[in-house]
Design brief:
homodimer, 275 residues, alpha+beta, four-stranded antiparallel beta sheet, 9 helices, DNA-binding
Chain lengths: 275, 275
DNA sequence: CGAGGTGTTGAGAACCATCAATTGCCGTGG
DNA sequence: CCACGGCAATTGATGGTTCTCAACACCTCG
């Protein structure tokens, strides 16, 4: 009998159970969690709050005493530029955490705003202290995720620096699709894109007008198909080629994680579902 | 008698001693380290390696088993785009760490290349395991620094997305200056900029021609003065205004750090030198 | 003295922004 | 049922910022 359970074990997983643990299910992608670690994660998701579209769940320039797991809906991290023109730094999808990278920071650098209505699970930052004390492997996993975010951000930075509008748009679509697949492997090539073209423009550093032109171009080239608010990627590979996309989600490393000690639980890589 | 020593205590600090601990001195900016923690840090800097200009100290797409502290010289993190046009993601100055954000990542996302000759201190990634086990406050500090890097990267992302060439250049100059001041508070307004205009272009996502034009513009407006390879910021405040610069280095938070335990060492904020 | 790298300057073109007008969609109310 | 308002998407015309290409000046080093 094993002392670990795999959260994403295929089998009798009810829909409700899955929706109760979208964060845990994302973590489970990177390995098996011990029972104790699962308790920590569960604690992070124990309180829910329903949030409206446009609600600021993490205000900039304010001390941040709560982290969030986004459970339903999309959020956006936005930098407020005094130029009026504001820039979205990243999109936060269900199952992703807000504030991990701001953990050591006294004041939050940027706003995090809900792009749609949704449900978030706030949990006090102090809990992280306990994690660092008692669940070193989990804290290492958080470090890993933070690092992954950083690499991802680097990719976007490169794209914003030297990428054309076409490349940016392709990257945007492909990246969203791949990230949605992480939590929800069975969506196929079609997904809901609950953003206006203005919003996309703020993510990509383009005007809504040019966003529209790029989308039209892709549609004309039969690369995508738009059935608002859904998008279908007709030729994902071509889009990846245009974007120069490299999937970074295989990058999580656990080899250096501290061992769990006498219970000897291995946080080994989970085999990827063939795709 | 205190059990802690402040590494940057003003007083009899020899030049040699300071050059031996540029990383420690950066850490010390954020608080006082215990003797044990100092030992960890010292261990990170115990082996030195002299590196040539252009040398790749951390190759992309390869497992990363060493971190580096850059002790002398400048390094650059570069994303290799297959478009030919390559983009520098960030500049790494003496006293800064390479690879912290890649800790949890199986393969390094990007190359890190020396922009000048210099000295780096490699230390095995495995040491971090020990840190996470035995020096929770230190590992929290690393998390904090990683977070700070992330926020900084967000600022640059916003700038690349919606900033003009003028704003980018101003930000570039001001940011470098402020970061050099962290380790070396007495350089005044003049600093050595050991980069070609092409290199600056790769950082800012501009061509060398336009970099030149911006620099000329700033010179004509008496905002800067160039005495290759030195730059003097004649009106730093105007530059900050142009760049919309906000200094993020005050942002490190230690309130949530785990306590050190019975020895009760406080990792309190260090008062900033008045500037 | 020549070669190569870097900086400087000019002219034209490309990409994307801006401005402006129109269409289509949806919910509301008459 | 239709009129209306408002928001988002779409399309066209024009302009600005930045790129590209190209030539030349400067410096260092052999």
């Amino acid at each position: 009998m094993r002392t670990t359970t795999h959260i994403l074990d295929t089998g009798p997983v009810s829909g409700a159970a899955r929706s109760n643990s979208c964060f845990a299910s994302r973590l489970a992608r990177y390995g098996t969690l011990s029972v104790e670690e699962q308790e920590f994660v569960a604690r992070m998701e124990e309180s829910e709050r329903r949030v409206k579209k446009g609600e600021v769940i993490l205000p900039a320039n304010q001390p941040l005493d709560e982290l969030f797991v986004v459970k339903e809906g999309w959020a956006v991290e936005r930098s407020r530029a005094r130029n009026g023109r504001q820039q979205s730094l990243r999109i936060i999808l269900p199952g992703e955490v807000v504030g991990l990278s701001n953990l050591g920071v006294r004041l939050a650098g940027n706003d995090v705003v809900m792009a749609t209505e949704g449900v978030v699970c706030p949990f006090p930052k102090d809990h992280m202290t306990a994690v660092y004390h008692k669940a070193p492997r989990l804290s290492a996993l958080f470090t890993a995720i933070t690092g992954l975010d950083s690499v991802t951000m680097g990719d976007r930075l490169a794209l914003m620096g030297s990428g054309t509008a076409r490349e940016r748009m392709a990257h945007f679509l492909v990246d969203l699709h791949e990230r949605l697949l992480v939590v929800n492997p069975d969506i196929g090539r079609r997904f809901r894109l609950p953003l206006r073209q203005v919003d996309i423009g703020e993510v990509l550093g383009l005007t809504k007008v040019y966003v529209n032109r790029m989308l039209k171009a892709f549609t004309d080239e039969h690369l995508i198909e738009i059935q608002r608010p859904y998008v279908r990627l007709l030729q994902p590979d071509v889009l990846k080629e245009i974007a120069g996309y490299t999937n970074r989600h295989d990058l999580i490393d656990h080899s250096w994680f501290p061992n769990a000690g006498q219970n000897g639980i291995s946080l080994g890589a989970r085999e990827r579902p063939t795709g």
